[in-house]
Amino acid sequence: MRFHALRHAATLCIVAGFAASPAAAKVISVGATTSDANEKLQEALILAEPGDTVQLGAGVWKLTDGLSLDVANVTVRGAGAGEGGSILDFAGQQGAGEGLLVTSDDVFLTGFAVLNTKGDGIKSKGADRIVYHKLRVEWTAGPKETNGAYGIYPVESSDVLIDSVFVRGASDAGIYVGQSKNIVVRDSIATENVAGIEIENSYDADVHDNIATKNTGGILVFDLPSLPMQGGHNVRVFENIVNDNSTPNFAPKGNIVASVPTGTGVLVMANRNVEIFDNVFDNNGTANVMIVGYRYEHKDPKYQPLPRQIVVRGNQHGKAGYAPKFAGGDMIAAAMGGSIPPVLWDGAGDAVVLDPVGVLSLNLPDVKTPQSEAKPAPADLSKGALPAALPTIKLPESMEAKVR
Fold first, then answer.
1. What is the pLDDT of residue 14?
2. What is the percentage of the chain residues whose pLDDT exceeds 70?
3. Which regions of 179-307 does DSSP assign to beta strands (E)?
4. How does strand 158-163 pair with strand 130-138?
């Protein structure tokens, strides 16, 4: 396994990179130490013009209000996301919103930290070609139900790059991409979140060279009903380290991730064309890989709740299944000598598991599907025709150039 692209260590030491600005652009520098830092920073984000860079000075910013950016082609650059860098601390935030909200295209966020927001850390909505790079989002008191739901949170976007970020403590997902397409999440660390990394109701995503550790569930690939964009598909999860996902689930009751069992490595629910390959799994108490249908009440007549064409191949499986956190799991483990196999399937949909490990099928009752769609035949998880390999996600060169 390569992991050569990991450009940081799991030590919070994340150093900001610098890319050239357009010749006609200007740099707007804002310092952290002034008493009106919140107002000055928001003013800079409002006055920035396309091509400009908002440069955050080093220091700890004590912020009481959320920030927003709605100007296209702007860079927000800090002095680094680790100690001594640009630390935006929202512990005194008065509202319940996000720390930073971006609603414009071609934005580059790099080299700063966002801490202790009341709501989400950094959110972008309808922001195409957005790049999250060398950022840290953290709730410094550790896992708590009252923490913000999402750390890095792009939604309803095309061309999303999340590169070299660190997220800790989110009460839903540390890195979440929803209702988007053409996505790359790489070289990042998600720890002590409910879900480390989540791809939801999205098309065409590569999730690779990440570390998902000490979450409730490491990496989730979901498709949910009653959302404008449905039919999540074409997701590759590869060359990640997914280990020790043992944090008790601290999501608020009623959230879908509140049902994720502690000790889950990768969980695929109701998605289509998902490849899970060349990952390193270890010490996930429920399962290294779970494949399930959506088994909750819903009123969406078009929703397809089955997992389909899921391929699990070429992974390294360490210890797993020794503390399964689902109904009856402990009894099943005891009957099987103390642990269940590393791959757990609820019996819905179809999948092919080529890893030379055991697979446990729970053979749960079937999942109701739309009348207009044929239900696949019961899966044989050990053999069968493989779907065509999914292509590598290609982002616009302008995005890749920003992180070099």
1. 34
2. 91
3. 181-186, 189-191, 195-200, 203-208, 211-213, 217-222, 233-238, 241-243, 264-269, 272-277, 280-282, 287-292
4. parallel
Res 35: pLDDT: 77
Q: Is residue 20 part of a domain?
A: no
Residue 331 falls within a domain, yes or no? yes
Residues of the domain holding 108: 27-402
383 inside domain = yes
Domain count, the chain: 1
The three-state secondary structure class of 331 is: helix
Q: What span, in angstroms and rounded, lies between the C-alpha atoms of 235 and 218?
A: 15
Q: Is residue 252 within 8 Å of 206, Cβ to Cβ? A: no
Residues paired with 203 in a beta bridge: 181, 233
The C-alpha atoms of residue 404 and residue 394 are separated, in whole angstroms, by: 16
Q: How far is CA 144 from CA 116, 140, 141, 169, 219, in A?
A: 11, 10, 8, 7, 19
pLDDT digits (tens, 9 = 90+) for 148-194: 999 999 999 999 999 999 999 999 999 999 999 999 999 999 999 99
Two tokens at 357?
């490990």
What CATH number is associated with residue 219? 2.160.20.10
Domain for residue 354, yes or no?
yes
CA angle 339–340–342, rounded 5-degree value: 115
DSSP string, 29-61: EE-SSSTTHHHHHHHHHHH--TT-EEEEPSEEE
Distance CA 323, CA 298 (A): 30
What pLDDT, on a 0 to 100 scale, did the predictor assign at position 382?
Answer: 59
Q: Which residue has the higher pLDDT, 4 or 197?
A: 197
Buried b / exposed e across 92-119, counting CB within 10 Å, b at 16+? ebeeebbbbbbebbbbbbbbbbbbbbbb
Residue 389 CB neighbour total at 10 angstroms: 10
Given a cut of 60, whether residue 3 has pLDDT beyond it is: no
247, two tokens: 């944090």
Give the amino acid at 175.
I
